[in-house]
């Protein structure tokens, strides 16, 4: 996915604004606070200037000090008062920025999580987990930083600059112009800087995602790392990603160093100009000492915003690159979703499944993986799918709950094309035990009741019995309350498969799909499971991917897939008579069994 070529419905600032909903007025108060605070900055030099002119240097300074001593006190008191007020305003506005930024963070993060939940399988095979996590954390934090800090700095710099400029022009416009005339040059430098640093920030976000992906894959794949004793290799790999990120970070910081001396020189030039031009003005009697004190006490208010510009632009580019990544998720839409006039079907299906000339190819694949698949599973029947590894079995069953969309043909349940059904209603009625079992970090009971948490304990036990899991569960120290860790650490492959089968059964599905679910259990247990599947206390059409003849033998229909084509189809007896692929397979397996 090329993030930089994406067009979003809104630009990043409009997008931020949208997510400030409910806090916009408050944010505006915060911004006003910043403006006010910066205007209040002028009070100190203004009052100092007054004190100098009236009580220190003016012609009547000595008399003024005698006669108007109360005015001096009032001026001093005002200085303290305004300083106090400034502190309160700063405190208040900082609190506001923080509150609003947290609220934006909270809102966007929840929204993104919601978005992630609704994405389809293609999305998850495109994005890496570490990348998605980075967008939800690091990148999103850069967005928060924009609301909490960057905007404040922009407002602060501009209002300080503007207030000081107005004050200067008002006090002595000629001197003010002499000082201000150099400032536009800084904007040009900043513009050049921006062009240089923007692509570096984009690269930086990418490197951060890469580093996190590296860490995430290593942590979740820790068992493989250990099995192959590749710890040193992995440490080195991470070190490379980390170095790469750190180097890019450093390089990005260095860019400013190239522009910094120019901006700094310009900023430092201002007091010099003030001293030179101001001196001449004073000698000529065009400027009072008090005004000069006010100017020099405020010259930082013109110079500092310029110094800050680089920092602000840097942070803004960081936000810009990060927000692009966040917005890509924010505006991503699953390709597979409810059609406009999707049919509601809250009740159970009869369970008739029809594949009508279905072909399928993965979006990123070169060749179709399924060709012209047609078959019908009647209500309550069992259809077994066989075929060598990679022939398209999992791809075929993934089309039923619409994890993917066929490129050609149609799949119908009870005569309704699956794409016309509401996704929720369709999937709610399908019990699926996938090929790679994933159990949640929860109790065994919680895992079995995952699809329907309202079911009672005795039901959980019943379904565990159906899937031949009850025995080993009852032998565990805490039985159904045993916590199974991340990915079911502590359980064997066959045990996990049986819990996953119980989880699929526990929703009493109209359609049960099992993808090699008994591959890791022994023959005896498998027989037991087949027996209970035939005796379920609810009607259910079963589509079962299996390799063992013992499973397929009793199926109402056996489909043999080869390279995505239906090679053979029929009952055990029919296929045995045909003496084709299935027959050979039976011979091979029973032969092996007899050894
Ligand atoms: N394939 C993809 N992208 C995917 C999944 C699979 O291109 O996301 C390819 C790999 C394979 C073909 O599709 O060549 C069929 O894969 P499938 O997983 O359907 O094969 P299977 O019959 O389930 O194999 P196994 O018995 O190993 O589970
Ligand atoms: Mg498979």
Automatic annotation (TrEMBL):
Annotated EC: 3.6.3.-
Native species: Fusicatenibacter saccharivorans
Lineage, highest ranks first: Bacteria, Bacillati, Bacillota, Clostridia, Lachnospirales
Domain of life: Bacteria
Cellular component, GO annotation: plasma membrane
Transmembrane segments: 25-47, 75-97, 146-167, 173-193, 259-283
Membrane association type: Multi-pass membrane protein
Pfam entry (one): ABC_tran
UniProt keyword terms in alphabetical order: ATP-binding, Cell membrane, Hydrolase, Membrane, Nucleotide-binding, Transmembrane, Transmembrane helix, Transport
All copies of domain ABC transporter, residue ranges: 353-588
Residue ranges of every copy of the ABC transmembrane type-1 domain listed in the record: 28-318
Stated name of the protein: ABC transporter ATP-binding protein
Record localization: Cell membrane
GO molecular function term, any single one: ABC-type oligopeptide transporter activity
Annotated InterPro entries: AAA+_ATPase, ABC1_TM_dom, ABC1_TM_sf, ABC_transporter-like_ATP-bd, ABC_transporter-like_CS, P-loop_NTPase, Type_1_exporter
Entries under PANTHER family matching the protein: ATP-BINDING CASSETTE SUB-FAMILY B MEMBER 10, MITOCHONDRIAL, ATP-DEPENDENT PERMEASE MDL1, MITOCHONDRIAL
Classification via CDD domains: ABC_6TM_YknU_like
């Amino acid at each position: 996915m090329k993030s930089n070529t994406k067009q979003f419905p809104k630009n990043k600032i409009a997008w931020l604004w949208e997510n400030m909903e409910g806090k916009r007025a408050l944010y505006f108060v915060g911004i006003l606070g910043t403006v006010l605070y910066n205007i209040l900055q002028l009070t100190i030099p203004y009052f100092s200037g007054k004190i100098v002119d009236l009580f220190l240097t003016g012609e009547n300074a000595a008399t003024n000090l005698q006669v108007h001593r109360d005015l001096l006190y009032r001026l001093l008191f005002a200085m303290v008062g305004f300083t106090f007020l400034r502190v309160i305003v700063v405190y208040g506005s900082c609190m506001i920025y923080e509150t609003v930024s947290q609220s934006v963070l909270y809102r966007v993060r929840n929204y993104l999580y919601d978005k992630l939940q609704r994405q389809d399988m293609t999305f998850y095979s495109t994005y890496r987990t570490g990348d998605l996590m980075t967008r939800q954390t690091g990148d999103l934090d850069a967005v928060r930083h924009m609301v909490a800090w960057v905007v404040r700095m922009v407002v602060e710099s501009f209002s300080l600059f503007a207030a000081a400029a107005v004050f200067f022009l008002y006090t002595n416009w000629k001197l003010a112009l002499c000082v201000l005339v150099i400032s536009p040059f800084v904007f040009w430098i900043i513009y050049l800087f921006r062009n240089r640093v923007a692509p570096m920030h984009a690269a930086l976000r990418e490197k951060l995602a890469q580093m996190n992906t590296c860490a995430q894959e290593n942590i979740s794949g820790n068992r493989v790392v250990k099995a192959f004793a590749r710890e040193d290799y992995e440490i080195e790999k991470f070190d490379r990603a980390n170095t790469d990120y750190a180097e890019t970070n450093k390089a990005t910081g260095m860019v400013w160093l190239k522009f910094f001396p120019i901006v700094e020189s310009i900023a430092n030039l201002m007091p010099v100009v003030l001293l030179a031009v101001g001196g001449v003005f004073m000698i000529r009697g065009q400027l009072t000492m008090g005004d000069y004190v006010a100017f020099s006490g405020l010259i930082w208010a013109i110079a500092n915003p310029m110094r800050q510009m680089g920092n602000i632009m840097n942070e803004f580019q960081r936000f810009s690159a990060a927000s692009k990544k966040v917005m890509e998720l924010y505006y991503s839409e699953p390709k597979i979703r409810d059609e406009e006039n999707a049919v509601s079907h809250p009740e159970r299906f009869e369970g008739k499944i029809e594949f009508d000339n279905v072909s399928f190819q993965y979006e990123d694949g070169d060749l179709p993986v399924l060709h012209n698949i047609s078959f019908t599973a009647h209500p309550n029947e069992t259809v077994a799918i066989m075929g060598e590894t990679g022939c398209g079995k999992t791809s075929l069953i993934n089309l039923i709950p619409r994890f993917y969309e066929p490129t050609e043909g149609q799949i119908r349940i009870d005569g309704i094309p699956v794409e016309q059904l509401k996704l929720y209603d369709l999937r709610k009625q399908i019990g699926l035990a996938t090929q790679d079992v994933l159990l949640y970090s929860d109790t065994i009971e919680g895992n079995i009741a995952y699809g329907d948490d309202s079911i009672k304990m005795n039901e959980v036990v019943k379904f565990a019995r159906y899937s031949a899991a009850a025995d080993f569960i009852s032998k565990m120290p805490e039985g159904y309350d045993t916590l199974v860790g991340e990915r079911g650490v502590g359980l064997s492959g066959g045990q996990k498969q049986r819990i996953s089968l119980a989880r699929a059964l526990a929703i009493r599905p109209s359609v049960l799909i099992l993808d090699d679910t008994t591959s890791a259990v022994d023959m005896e247990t498998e027989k037991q499971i087949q027996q209970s599947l035939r005796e379920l206390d609810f009607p259910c059409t079963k589509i079962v991917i299996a390799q063992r003849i013992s499973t397929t033998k009793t199926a109402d229909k056996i489909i043999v897939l080869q390279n995505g084509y239906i090679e053979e189809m029929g009952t055990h007896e029919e296929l045995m008579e045909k003496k084709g692929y299935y027959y050979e397979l039976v011979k091979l397996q029973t032969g092996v069994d007899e050894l």
